Amino acid sequence: MKAATMCVFTREEWTRGLVDMGVDSIGALRSSFDELRQQLKDDDAFRDFYSFCFGFAKEPGYGVRTLPIEVANQMWQLTLADRLKHLKLWTTFLDEKEVKAVTKDVWDMLLTFANDVHADMSNYDEDGAWPVLIDDFVEWYREKNGLS
Q: pLDDT tens for residues 26-52?
């Protein structure tokens, strides 16, 4: 639907989305859910969806490039629960550091982190182009686990 605002669908967004999906009835809409779930198994399609979620979840007027941490945490539960092995630790870390908001860069790079970094973080490249918050998380994780 490519809705501009969370929980709000304009008639145009709704109609455009249904047309794009080839849906012309309630039955066809119900039948399309399995196909939509299948599409999210494709890494490129999921990345597009995940990136869209940041803008979709932003509160109007909160900031152009940030998402309140409470909203980000809920969106991560919905989007990354099966992809980020350390999601619970990540949210604990953010709570401990009293992070108030996340940037679009952190949002996007967290998916890259989830896809590319091993569960034990042994292949994490400290010299890579990671946002500072993710660097800090890895350092925090290693200290907590006696790996530093």
A: 888 888 888 888 888 999 999 999 998
Find the Cα–Cα–Cα–Cα dihedral 42, 101, 109, 86, rounded to 10°.
-80
d(CA 66, CA 121): 26
pTM for the complete prediction?
0.82
Question: What secondary structure does DSSP assign to 6-29, as a single string?
Answer: TTB--HHHHHHHHHHHT--SHHHH
Is residue 50 within 8 A of residue 79, CB to CB? The reply is yes
Domains of the chain, residue spans:
65-144
Beta bridge partners of residue 101, listed in sequence order: 68
Strands 66-68 and 101-103: antiparallel
> In this structure, what is the dihedral angle of CA atoms 48, 115, 72, 120, given to the nearest 10 degrees?
180
Give, in words, the CATH class of 65-144. mainly alpha
**Are 66 and 96 spatial neighbours (Cβ–Cβ below 8 Å)?**
no
Our CA dihedral for 44, 46, 48, 50, rounded to 10 degrees, sits at: -150
